User: What shape does this take?
Amino acid sequence: MNHLPQAWGRPRNDVYGPYDSSYLRTGAPNTHTKSPIVTGTSVLAVKFKDGVVIAADNLASYGSLARFTNVHRLRPFNSRALVGFGGDISDMQYLDRLLNSLDVTENYSSPGHVMHAKNLHTYLSKVMYKRRSDMNPLWNQMLVVGLDGDDEPFLSSVDLLGTTFSSPTLATGYGAHLAQPLLRKLADNESQVGQVTRDQAVEAVKECMRVLFYRDARSLDQYSIAVITKEGGVELKEDEKLEGQSWAFADTIRGYGTQVN
Assistant: This one.
């Protein structure tokens, strides 16, 4: 008689025949990401009269540890579109492979036709909404920038729920709280975009990256910045360094601890 615990309650083989376990699951249950582990912080973008400027630092944090300092989160799709990724880095890598596959498919199936930024944003919004509906979201918020079908500057956002919206200035992560008010001073609505020059847009984005380095513990002073225009296409610089930093303002900060004066 089999007295092993795994046989308790099981019908006897000599009476009922061998126990059929073929229908039982042999592997581990399906699991989905519930909380991102390695993440990237803010992505900033602003439209100007001839195109769009976008920037993101090169840091990927492992929880609260500034672990990886050479992760480039601005990924060009073609000469008319670029995606800036915030959030989970592994999901960013998955989406990057997905977009590379899409680019190859489009080049072979539609020669002479180039997807513009608005097409790309629509595609990503469908991907994110589908994964959300499957209860297995991609933990990212992305800014899609470039030129639309009429060669006008395009800037729009899509998040892990598939929610989309557009604005002359956008920021993800902590930048939505600190950088967005500064960028809105440059262009608060679409009517003001035509008055913004390239130099003004680049300088405003660089200033916001400096503010985020001061205030955001998950940021870095090395960053990537890209300018997308009709004439120049995607002009991407991936290893820029913040300049003109000053920590003099720290002397005036007063916290909750004991004050000297």
